[in-house]
Structures are given as C-alpha cells and as structure tokens.
Amino acid sequence: MIFEPGFLVSKSITTGLGRTVFSIKPQGFIFAVNPEWSQASIAAEVLHSFTPNTALWLRYFTAPDQLLGNSEVRRTEPEVFANERVTSHVGYIRLEQRLSDNWELRVQGRVGKRLYNDAFARRNTTFWTIGPHLFWRVKEHLRLFAGYHYERGLASGRHDFEPEEDNSYVHHFFAAGLDAELLPHLELELDFHYERNNWTSGIVDDERNGQHENIYQGTGRLLYQLTDQTAFTLTVQRANRGVNAFQTIDHNTNVGVGVIHRF
Question: What does residue 36 show for φ and ψ, rounded to 5 degrees?
Fold first, then answer.
C-alpha cells in the first residue's frame, strides 16, 4: 500500500502582457510496508496566457535520492550488489495554441539529467524530449486526445569500455485517450499509451547491445465531485512490459482511491 499525499499552491497575476499563474506542487509517495522505498518530489510551474488562445507553460521538476533497487555494481566473481539511487532534474516547456473552438495543439519539450549514486555514476544520463499533443472537443462533455514524443538519452559511460555498460537510449511514446462527463458530478478519464525503448549501446559485450523493450499501459479514472471543493477518485491501471533479451513479459496492476480537496 502506498500513500500519495500532495498539495498545490498557486498565485495568479494579470498585467498588460497577459495572465500569469505561479504554482508549486510538493508530492510524496509513502510505502506502508517497505518505508525505504518512500520518496518525494517537487514541481514549480509558471503558466503565462498571452491571449485566451495562446499560452506558454514552464516547469521545473526534481525528485531527489529515489531508491531503484538492489543492483549489480559490476560483473565480477563474486558479484557485488548495492542500493541504486537516482536524483532527477527536469525542465519542461510547452506551447499551447487553440486552433478553433474544438481543437487545441500543444508542442512540448524537456531537458534533464538523471544523477546516480557513486556506485552507479556511469549511468548518469542527459536527455531531451520533443513532441506534439492534439486535443479535440467532440462535444461539450467529451474530449479526445492523441500525442507522440521522441526522447534521446545519453549516458556518461557510453565511451567507457569498462565495465561494458552503456544505458543510452532512444525512446518513442504514443498516447491516446478521452475525458468524458458521464453525469453532472461524475467524470471518466481513459488513456492508453505505448512505449518503445531502444538501447543504443555499441559496446560488444554490453548486455543492452541490440536490445529493446515494449511497454503497454492502460489507465481508467473515475472522479466524483461531492462538493465544489471535494472530490473522490478511483483509479485502475494495468501495464505489460516485455524485454526482447529475456523473452518474458512483466505484468503490473495498480488500484488507487483518493480524495481531492480545494481550500
């Protein structure tokens, strides 16, 4: 069981250049049984609306010292293992343009770094992402969306032939879904996404050389608005992940319930 507390604080100002909303969102993931997996993140955002049809969104996100598991430090005899941790720093930019009353285009990009603890510093990765998302309001209570983005990650150890490990990659992401109002106080969100990760290691003895993985994930979320300030949520998520090197498929199912309250 995981508790996921979070809150959002925002402030808006209006000038002759448009309306700007500043916000900050700390969030935690608290594991009830294995507290060593607990983690936190924080996001700072600025959304500036030049006109009702054009907006620019800037975001900085950081997640410090996240535990990824107990991993092999190097392939030796005997094998050496240690806790693998990563700290992420990511900057986002997104341009939102309303094309008509029913169509909206968002073009987004990001750059960032993943910094690992000393035992796994060769995995430090610099990455960048770019891609469009398109939204279509079919009718008043139904909106569809689809999107794609491309990401390139370059590991700091890609030029080192010892310990024969390069986790550089090319990432393709496709998503589609809908938001619908089923009843005056009940909303439904459905989305599906597919990820293709191709590792680009050119080191002959690297186990990632020539490997790829496929991830399929579907999510459904019901939101019931109890009052103007309070809503309840129910979320079900199912994911399958397959890596060609192992010819196996991992399945993951998550069920979540939550409360959203606006002060």
Answer: -65, -15
Q: Which residues pair with 173 in a beta bridge?
A: 149, 195
Q: Tens digits of per-residue pLDDT, 133-189?
A: 999 999 989 999 999 999 999 998 777 656 677 889 999 999 999 999 999 899 999
Identify residue 48 by its one-letter amino acid code: H
What DSSP designation does 139 have? E
Q: Tokens in use for 79?
A: 């094998």
- Residue 238 tokens, joined: 């199912």
Give the pLDDT of residue 13.
95
- Report pLDDT for 237: 96
| pTM, entire model | 0.84
Residues 6+ apart with CB under 8 A from 197: 169, 170, 171, 212, 213, 215
Structural Rg of the chain based on CA atoms = 21
pLDDT < 70 regions, the chain? 74-77, 160-163, 245-247
Residue 191, classed as helix, strand or coil, is: strand
Tell me the C-alpha distance between 111 and 109, whole Å: 7
Contacts 24+ apart (CB under 8 A), 253-262: 256/4, 257/232, 257/233, 258/4, 258/232, 258/233, 259/230, 259/231, 259/232, 259/233, 260/223, 260/230, 260/231, 260/232, 260/233, 261/229, 261/230, 261/231, 262/228, 262/229, 262/230
For residue 159 the two structure tokens come to 């030029």
Give the torsion sign (CA, 54, 55, 56, 61). negative
Q: Which residues partner with 98 through β-bridges?
A: 104
